[in-house]
Write a structure and sequence with these properties.
InterPro entries: AlkB-like, AlkB-like_sf, ALKBH3, Oxoglu/Fe-dep_dioxygenase_dom. The protein is of the alpha+beta class. The protein has 4 helices and 14 strands. It has helices spanning 3-9, 29-42, 87-100, 174-177; strands at residues 19-23, 49-52, 55-58, 62-67, 72-75, 78-81, 106-112, 119-122, 135-141, 144-150, 158-162, 167-171, 178-182, 192-198. The structure holds 2-oxoglutaric acid and fe (ii) ion.
């Protein structure tokens, strides 16, 4: 996403070295309710292992990958092959195109069953996404806290509650200089679906 277009639409939540924008009402409540239901039913959710410190461990969440023909995505020693677009995901991709002008090629889905499911600190900096990737993250279901901090100094921590129907955009140099996570929480929470749309270069 071009920086000038980004700045026209969003307030930049980062103080320097990248752009992160938040759009609370990307999907209206009823639309978001419907997408949650359709995706919960239609996606073949799986708990996949990853390699961490030389050990195979189960990820603390369920995942799936959808995308254009031939798309694969590798991280932490596993490779996922994209499934063909299904109607609800094709529809959200189209709405994102209208909003950001980006032609996303695939989407990684995460299903957090409850507050014990999580995602640790990381950057989405795979070289296949190009130098300064634009990542569009749509949230459905329970609100979870998204945290960002500076990668080198581990300072400047920012908390963004990602609520039902919201959109978070990460762009510019953000994946070089900032890392993000979804921490576990002791709160009694229902499930949450997160969709991160990405573009292969
Ligand atoms: O669940 C989220 O909001 C974050 C997901 C994420 O960072 C990712 O899939 O790379
Ligand atoms: Fe991420």
């Amino acid at each position: 996403m071009q920086q000038d277009l980004f700045l026209l639409k969003y307030r930049n939540l980062l103080p320097y070295q990248g752009e992160v924008g938040f759009y609370d009402g990307f999907l209206a409540q009823e639309v978001a309710d419907l997408f949650f239901k359709l995706l919960e039913d239609q996606v073949p959710w799986k708990q996949e292992p990853i390699w961490m410190f030389g050990k195979k461990v189960m990820q603390p969440r369920l995942t799936a990958l959808f995308g254009d023909p031939g798309v694969t995505y590798s991280y932490s020693g596993i490779e996922m092959k994209a499934l063909d677009w299904i109607e609800p995901l094709a529809e959200i991709r189209q709405r994102l195109k209208a909003h950001t002008s980006v032609d996303f090629t695939h989407v990684l889905l995460n299903y957090y069953r409850d507050g014990k499911d999580s995602m640790g600190w990381h950057r989405d900096n795979e070289s296949s996404l190009g130098k300064n990737p634009c990542i569009a993250s749509v949230s459905l279901g329970a609100t979870r806290n998204f945290q960002i901090r500076h990668y080198e100094s581990k300072s400047n921590k920012i908390d963004i509650p990602l609520n039902h129907g919201s959109l978070l955009i990460m762009a510019g140099e953000s994946q070089h200089f900032w890392e993000h996570q979804i921490p576990k929480t002791k709160k009694e929470l229902g499930p949450r679906i997160n969709l991160t749309f990405r573009k292969l270069i």
